[in-house]
Predict the structure.
Amino acid sequence: MAYNDNNIFAKILRGEIPCNKIYEDEFVLSFHDINPQKKIHALVIPKGKYINLDDFILNASLDEMAGLLKGINIVAKKLGISTEVGKGYRALTNINEHGGQEVPHLHFHLFGGEIVGKMVE
Ligand code: AMP
């Protein structure tokens, strides 16, 4: 499956669609989810064109991998939910059809600000 440049997160990365930005650096962009499922619901996406976590693992550089993981912690810290400053959170990524992925650009959901609850419905 090829990366689709018309997906909504690609448009956000190109600045064609606005987002409620939390953080940005060389490797990641983070913004609030438009339809929050918990008190805090942020998204962290790599700047590179990766469809999902498998694509990222197979094709991203080590710098991109480190950048994404560090980005998750930086965002969690900024939101007051990382273990250094808060009570923790859930980081989750849906992968393809059975994973329930809707937007075909890799993204981690960060849920927090309250007890997140059951892992799988
Ligand atoms: P997933 O089902 O894992 O692909 O999640 C896609 C997420 O993107 C959902 O939680 C949506 O609410 C969120 N989303 C879709 N469009 C936007 C947008 N324009 N800005 C922020 N979040 C969005």
